[in-house]
Design brief:
The structure holds two protein chains of two kinds.
Chain A lengths: L3 H9 L6 H9 L6 H11 L19 E11 L4 E2 L2 E2 L2 E8 L15 E6 H4 L25 E12 L2 E9 L20 E4 L4 H5 L9 E3 L1 E2 L5 E2 L5 E13 L7 E7 L11 E5 L12 H7 L2 E6 L3 H8 L15 E2 L23 E2 L1 E6 L5 H6 L17 E5 L1 E3 L3 H5 L10 E5 L3 E5 L8 E5 L14 H12 L3 E5 L5 E8 L5 E4 L10 E5 L2 E4 L17 E3 L7 E5 L4 H6 L16
Parallel strand pairs in A: 1-12, 14-30, 23-24
Antiparallel strand pairs in A: 1-6, 2-3, 4-5, 4-7, 7-8, 7-9, 8-12, 10-11, 13-15, 15-21, 16-17, 18-19, 18-25, 19-22, 20-21, 22-23, 25-26, 25-30, 27-28, 28-29
Chain B lengths: L16 H4 L6 H7 L12 H16 L3 H14 L3 H14 L2 H13 L5 H24 L97 E5 H7 L4 H5 L5 E7 L2 E6 L10 E5 L2 E2 L20 E8 L3 H4 L6 E7 L8 E8 L3 E12 L2 E13 L12 E3 L6 E15 L5 E15 L8 E15 L3 E16 L1 E3 L11 E16 L4 E17 L10 E14 L3 E12 L4 E15 L2 E12 L3 H5 L1 E5 L5 E6 L13 E12 L5 E13 L2 E3 L3 E2 L2 H5 L5 E2 L4 E6 L2 E3 L3 E16 L2 E15 L15 E10 L4 E10 L2 E9 L2 E9 L2 E12 L4 E8 L22 E9 L1
Parallel strand pairs in B: 4-7, 24-30
Antiparallel strand pairs in B: 1-6, 2-3, 4-5, 6-7, 8-9, 8-40, 9-10, 10-12, 11-16, 12-13, 13-14, 14-15, 15-17, 17-18, 18-19, 19-20, 20-21, 21-22, 22-25, 23-24, 25-26, 26-32, 27-31, 28-30, 29-30, 32-33, 33-34, 34-35, 35-38, 36-37, 38-39, 39-40
Helix pairs in contact in B: 3-4, 4-5, 5-6, 6-7
The chains are: A alpha+beta, B mainly beta.
């Protein structure tokens, strides 16, 4: 295969240009004297296009484009300030980093927006725009409408993608903050779905797999020199979301283990944590062997007023947890086959609970984290590789969970048991094996933690599309966030921005953050008296800390697998 | 008109062989030096003419009038100048060769000098005297007719002045490329240096004395806003002469500047050249004030100079003056690291008409035509031209399916179609008014800051200029306009081309200056330059705030050069600029002390400050920048919604400089300069300030209803928190070993370091080459062949460029390897020197020792280019 610049030149050369003429220029070397100059000048003139060159660090290299239409079927939108409220949001997910519950991704590869003004332009006559700019919303009995628009997302890397989306009906989406970047109740969900008709009658969506770029020998995809462009991707948004995001806080720590956690904001677990009892025959003691976190729906009463106001606007008025069974094997049915990997007796319940490891703060951030007992003060992003400890969502108790009824009412509390096992996945590689590291092979009584090690491995391998091996060793130490996720993809994470002064904010006092002034690379960053402020919600800064082992010798013998500590280079464009 | 005048002078005598052996600097030079002998005149030989002029005047001073006249005639032959004709006339009169003196005065009058009446009176007196002599001779036929001034052994016709100064029918400036060096009005009258030469018998000469001003000496007007020798300049100054321009064959002015020691020149695209002085070059370089005949062509929107939008081309340029170091003391804001003043050929000067056309590979094109004339006191010069430069390399490869490409020629770097007309009406000996204007239709491919790589401009530039000048008072008003459509050249599908975009700049300038001198006390001569200025700026652009205000800038400056017996001069300058954006007055002082051990040596020590006020883009930016996540954007704005008290400060430079200039010899000259610059408050893109819940709580919207994107943070501009300490020096020399051969070389050292206060995280930047060097050889032969060969070297650089990434604007280091440019031109003049064919090669070694160089990390690879030219002029 010819180098790109050679092919470029060949492609640009006029077809009737003599080959010698085209090649004479590069060979005209060393024109050091005047004598050959005239001859060279006379013979070397050509009308070729300039060669193509783009510096590696320069934007504009070959990338992928996804493009298509978005069709909205739902209620008329609201209007405010002479504009349609909301926008259609297309979230482009790499299938290796799908959001929970299917995957472990936390953010989309790209975000495309079709503004409400454009999407509903054809229906402008049916909308009311209040002269004073106040919000107008259609009456509840207004017939639904169907409109279409276009969208495009680029630049994208070579990969296989899914497009998920929703119409932000209430206009409260904001990708800057984890507390506002997922759909809320009333938004209209959907995506590029292969079974759109089935979804409308209640079936789970099957998202279209969109392979962008050429297939490499290692199974990954890359963008060829000419770029990659897939058009005609039809996104349908037609499913009103019935649930609010599962806003929660840690109400209490239930810990009868030697860790004896009492501080609900900083729950600690040693990296060599060993369950005292893990036996299906002894569910009561098994449950007690776990560190458990009792979560409350919404926020504590004392924070409720602030939480409902801007900039949070949290949906906590009737906050409750909506339990449901997870269709683990995606067969469209929720039955006895849908259980947690480590026990066939325990159904997997929504909301799922995941503890995700966060990046370690840098030195300056660590210094800023003054009070380590009051939860995290520096909020960092999810760590690479992705390290997830899946909690066990309990309905009242372990036994209650095993006996989960067909229908349960919304609950104000939810209990999550901390499994001492972490899944480590290098999400930047499509094929790199993942590891499930389990802190101990057996409980203190000699019961195996994974009765069916292969079964667990197979189940996880199937779920994450790569080989997942099981290793026994110390858990990756660090700070973990807790995520609750509904089957709709709606989720809530603690700690979050509501509880932590983040980025260019300083903690003005125990309950207030203020916006920094000055420039980020300068020393004069200050929080002046005129700086904007906002409330800080203490309940939203709780963390799980996997700390040093109780028996260091064990970790020497059973170290944390390398897969859990590999740090890939910082991704760049 | 020239009838009755003496005949052309004989060819200059051959140079002694020992002189030729001096030309051993390079094999090429030797080879070419061998062609120096025989044939007709050398062209563009200002340096050689200067040598003959100086020799002639020295001989006349010693009363060796015959030899002196010979030297002056040689000088005139090489580079005609009316003052040389005048001096020949005076010397001939002194010799008693009245007829020859009258002829030489006649030649002088052909240039229509402002002292025409005075000289005509002299001629009349000479005629009367001649008539009287003839009458006396007729009365005494047996007597020897004229004093036997001729040396023994001289043959008829050997006597200096026996030949006409011009070829029959020619006037000064008739020859291609020949022209009076100065405007006729600039040095027309007897000046303090004019020395009436007493006749041996004590008889006073008729008319004034010889004009001893070194008219071939390069003069600069930029350093003090008045003509002076570089020896007297308060700043280190370099001149690119017309000879340099013509022999180089280079048609890009920035590339001509590359040969100046200390200049930083980079070509990013085929149409985007960025020039700075002693460092701090950048995309949209903004540290250098560029003038055309003193008129600012600084782009107030971006702060840059779009060199390829000028309404003139190199064929209209008389010289380019480069003043190193801060120049705000006279020029105010933006003369940060230096001033470049492009001096065009004055109306009525130069060849009467001409045309040059050129064509090169990759569809390079060049055409220039001009007419210049004088009718009594009215003179004019009109030119028109066309330039086309292709991109060096193109960013968009064929067949790309992920991009949308703007409606712009993807092979085009710059295209310029221009016309320029300047006129002057002389009112009296010392006063004149001028009126003129220029227009160019341009298309450019440039690189902006941040994500705006590969940005296109298409539109017009215009200026209308009127001026009044007199002995003491100068006034000028001019209107400038830049109006283009612009946008990024390409974008990924789904990303913005940043359209519509119509940056428009209208500016109006009024300047009033005074020049005069007085003595106080008697031993100290004060030369005062003072002036006031006003500049009105009206800018609009979709990228700026909707209510971008009109700006009214005011300035006042004063310079006093206090001289003691031409031995020492203290130059004190200062200027106050009112900057509307800052709502305050910014002072810019400068002081220089010049010691002249001899007339042609100068030691200079100076200290100065300068500032660059924020451009309109920096002070009024309001542009949502779409991020690689197409639904997200960054609000890049000068007014910070998240930090209302923020105000960008002007960049500041404080400099000290010491230099030594030696022009003592006619065979060489050199200058060595050392400097230290302290630079603070550099303006750069602000590091992103991500949205926070606090700012959101304060009401800053997350969703931009105008763009349909989500705002995730704030950008804009910031003053960098680090301080640059730059030390260095320049060493430049020019050697004239034999007639027709110039060799020049220079070297620049630049050592830069940064002080970062605690908390300042600006990364280290080494974007300026530590070492830069130029070596060039110019050859002019009498057989019509002429040319130039130049080498330019600059050492490696490491740029810390601000780039857009998923996280916003960040610094990333890029290393650029050292590179060498080898450029050459060869030309052949024929048809009585009226025609010339020439060929040039730029960057001849482009890919010989590796890949063609990049001059900026994101720039094109600058490859080899050939071009051929044909010139015809009258």
């Amino acid at each position: 295969m010819l180098p790109p610049h050679v092919t470029d030149q060949a492609m640009n050369a006029p077809s009737d240009a003599p080959a010698r003429s085209r090649r004479s220029l590069p060979r005209a070397r060393g024109a050091l004297t005047f004598a050959p100059l005239l001859a060279l000048a006379a013979g070397a003139f050509s009308c070729d296009d300039p060669a193509h060159f783009l510096n590696a660090g320069q934007a504009g290299g070959p990338k992928g484009v996804l493009e298509g239409t978005v069709t909205y079927a739902g209620p008329l939108p609201c209007t405010e300030n002479q504009h349609v409220v909301g926008a259609a949001l297309m979230l482009i997910f790499d299938v290796r980093l799908l959001p929970p519950p299917e995957g472990l991704g936390t953010s989309a590869a790209s975000l495309a927006v079709t503004p409400g003004d454009k999407l509903f332009a054809s229906l402008k006559g049916h909308l009311t725009f209040n002269a004073d700019g106040s919000r107008w919303c259609p009456a509840a009995n207004t017939p639904p409408v169907t409109v279409s628009g276009t969208w495009a997302a680029a630049p994208l890397e070579g990969a296989t993608y899914e497009v998920r989306g929703f119409y932000d009906h209430d206009g409260n989406f904001d990708p800057s903050f984890s507390i506002s970047k997922l759909p809320t109740k009333g938004d209209i969900g959907g995506g590029a779905i292969d079974n759109a008709a089935d979804v409308l009658v209640g079936k789970a969506p099957i998202y279209r797999k969109i392979a962008l770029g050429e297939l490499a020998t290692d199974g990954s995809r890359y963008i060829p020199e000419t770029g990659a462009h897939i058009s005609g991707i039809a996104v349908t948004l037609a499913l009103p979301l019935p649930l609010d995001t599962p806003v929660f806080y840690t109400k209490e720590v239930l810990d009868e283990t030697p860790s004896a956690n009492k501080n609900e904001l900083v729950v600690k677990m040693p990296s060599d944590f060993q369950l005292k009892t893990f036996s299906a025959l002894d569910p009561a003691n098994t449950e007690k062997s776990f560190i458990r976190m009792k979560l409350g729906a919404g926020v504590p009463k004392e924070e409720a007023a602030a939480a409902e106001l801007p900039p949070f606007g949290l949906p906590i008025k009737s906050a409750a947890f909506i339990y449901s069974r997870q269709d683990v094997n995606s067969d469209g049915l929720t039955d006895g086959k849908d259980h947690i990997p480590d026990s066939t007796q325990i159904p997997s319940l929504f909301p799922l609970a995941f503890f995700t490891k966060l990046n370690e703060p840098d030195a300056a951030q660590k210094a800023a984290n003054k009070n380590k007992e009051s939860g995290v003060e520096v909020l960092t992003n999810q760590a690479y590789p992705v390290i997830v400890m899946q909690g066990l969502t309990l309905y009242k108790s372990l036994l209650g969970t095993a006996l989960f009824p067909a229908k349960v009412d919304p609950q104000s509390e939810l209990t999550v048991a901390l499994r001492p096992a972490a899944l480590c996945i290098d999400a930047t590689s499509a094929t790199k094996p993942a590891v499930l590291v389990v802190s101990q092979e057996k409980d203190s009584k000699g019961n195996k933690i994974l009765a069916d090690e292969k079964g667990v491995s197979d189940a996880l391998s199937a779920q994450f599309g790569r080989k997942v091996t099981v290793q026994y060793g110390c858990l990756p130490q660090g700070t973990y966030a807790l995520n609750l996720i509904y089957g709709t993809g709606q989720a809530w994470t603690v700690p979050n921005e509501a509880g932590v002064c983040i980025g260019r904010e300083l903690e003005k006092d125990k309950t207030t953050c203020c916006a920094l002034q000055g420039d980020a690379n300068q020393s004069q960053s200050t929080c002046e008296s005129s700086a904007p402020t906002r409330a800080r919600l203490d309940s939203q800064r709780g963390i799980l800390v996997v700390g040093p082992p109780t028996d260091p010798a064990y970790c020497v013998k059973h170290p944390t697998p390398d897969t859990c500590t590999f740090i890939p280079p910082t991704p760049t464009l | 008109m020239a009838q009755g005048r003496p005949h052309p002078p004989a060819p200059p005598p051959r140079l002694p062989r020992r002189t030729r052996t001096a030309a051993t600097f390079s094999a090429t030079a030797l080879l070419l030096a061998a062609t120096l002998y025989g044939g007709s005149a050398l062209a563009d030989a200002r340096t050689d003419a200067r040598r003959h002029f100086r020799a002639g005047m020295a001989l006349i001073e010693k009363k060796q009038l015959v030899d002196g006249i010979k030297e002056l005639e040689l000088a005139y032959q090489l580079a005609p100048h009316p003052n040389v004709a005048y001096n020949i006339a005076v010397a001939q009169a002194e010799l008693g060769n009245l007829e020859l003196a009258i002829g030489a005065y006649g030649t002088y009058l052909d240039s229509k000098p402002p002292d025409q009446a005075e000289v005509e009176g002299t001629i009349q007196k000479l005629r009367e005297k001649l008539a009287a002599k003839r009458a006396a001779a007729e009365a005494k036929p047996s007597e020897t007719p004229e004093p036997a001034i001729d040396k023994p052994g001289e043959k008829p016709g050997d006597k200096p002045g026996d030949k006409p100064i011009d070829k029959p029918g020619e006037k000064p400036g008739d020859k291609p490329g020949d022209k009076p060096i100065d405007k006729p009005g600039e040095k027309p009258v007897a000046k303090p240096g004019d020395k009436p030469v007493a006749k041996p018998g004590g008889e006073q000469p008729i008319g004034g004395g010889e004009r001893t001003d070194d008219i071939y000496e390069e003069t600069v007007v930029t350093a003090s806003r008045a003509a002076q020798s570089p020896l007297d300049s308060p700043s280190s100054t370099t001149i690119i002469t017309k000879q340099d321009i013509r022999l180089s064959g280079i048609t890009r002015i920035p590339e001509l500047l590359r040969r100046v020691a200390g200049m930083d020149v980079m070509q990013i695209t085929g149409g985007d050249e960025n020039v700075s002085m002693r460092g701090f070059n950048s995309r949209l370089a903004n540290k250098l004030l560029v003038l055309v005949n003193g008129r600012s062509v600084y782009n107030d929107i971006l702060g840059s100079t779009f060199w390829e939008t000028l309404t003139i081309d190199v064929d209209q340029v008389e010289r380019i003056e480069v003043v190193r170091g801060p120049g705000s003391a006279l020029y105010g804001a933006d003369a940060f690291s230096g001033v470049v003043n492009i001096i065009t050929i004055a109306p009525g000067e130069g060849s009467k008409s001409g045309v040059r056309v050129g064509y090169g590979d990759h569809q390079q094109g060049y055409a220039s035509g001009w007419v210049s004339g004088r009718d009594g006191d009215f003179s004019y010069r009109a030119s028109a031209g066309y330039t086309r430069y292709p991109r060096w390399t193109r960013e968009v490869a064929p067949g790309r399916i992920d991009l949308k490409v703007a409606d712009f020629d993807q092979n085009l770097g710059a295209e310029n179609l221009r016309i320029d007309l300047r006129t002057e009406q002389r009112l009296s000996k010392d006063t004149a008014i001028s009126l003129g204007g220029g227009y160019s239709r341009v298309a450019l491919d440039v690189y902006g800051t941040g994500p705006f790589n590969d940005y296109r401009l298409k539109g017009d530039t215009l200026d209308v200029t009127s001026a009044f000048r007199s002995k003491h008072i100068n006034a000028r008003v001019y209107y400038s306009r830049l109006a283009v459509t612009s946008g990024v050249d390409y974008a990924y599908i789904g990303q913005s081309l940043y359209e519509p975009s119509h940056p428009t700049q209208n500016s109006f300038d009024a300047e009033l200056g005074y020049t005069g001198d007085f003595k106080l006390p008697a031993v100290l001569k004060h030369t005062v330059n003072a002036g006031v200025g006003y500049r009105f700026k009206n800018i609009s652009w979709e990228y700026l705030e909707k209510d971008t205000p009109n700006e009214h800038h005011g300035s006042i400056y004063l310079q006093d050069a206090i001289s003691y017996k031409n031995l020492a001069t203290l130059v004190v300058s200062g200027r106050l600029d009112y900057v509307p954006y800052l709502a305050r007055v910014v002072p810019s002082p400068r002081a220089s002390f010049i010691l002249k051990p001899s007339d042609r040596q100068a030691v200079r020590v100076s200290g100065s400050t300068a500032f660059r006020s924020p451009t309109f883009l920096e002070s009024h930016l309001a542009l949502p920048i779409q991020l690689p996540l197409p639904g997200a954007e960054l609000i890049s704005a000068s007014k910070r919604e998240d930090d209302p008290n923020f105000k960008l400060q002007p960049e500041q430079i404080t400099a000290v400089e010491a230099s030594y200039l030696n022009q003592q010899s006619d065979l060489f000259e050199f200058e060595v300069t050392a400097y230290y610059n302290r630079v603070t408050d550099l303006v750069a893109l602000a590091v992103n300030r991500n949205n926070t819940l606090s700012t959101k709580g304060a009401g800053l919207p997350g969703y931009d209803v105008d763009t349909g994107r989500y705002n995730v943070g704030f950008g804009g501009w910031a003053n960098q928190c680090d301080t640059y300490n730059v030390g260095g020096g320049e060493l430049g020399a020019r050697v004239y070993p034999v007639e027709g051969l110039d060799i020049f070389a220079n070297y620049a050292l630049n050592l830069s370091s940064q002080d970062r206060p605690t908390g300042c995280s600006v990364p280290e930047d080494k974007r300026t080459s530590t070492h830069k060097a130029n070596v060039g050889v110019q050859v002019r032969t009498k057989v019509g062949i002429n040319g130039e060969l130049t080498f330019h070297y600059q050492s490696a650089q490491t740029w810390n460029e601000q780039v857009a990434s998923l996280a916003g604007i960040n610094y990333q280091p890029y290393t650029l390897p050292a590179y060498t440019l080898v450029n050459a031109r060869i030309g052949y003049r024929f048809f009585k020197d009226k025609m010339e064919a020439s060929a040039t090669v730029f960057n001849a070694l482009a890919d010989v020792f590796g890949e063609a160089p990049q001059m900026h990390p994101f720039g094109n690879r600058v490859g080899r280019r050939f071009m051929g030219f044909f010139t015809y002029s009258l």
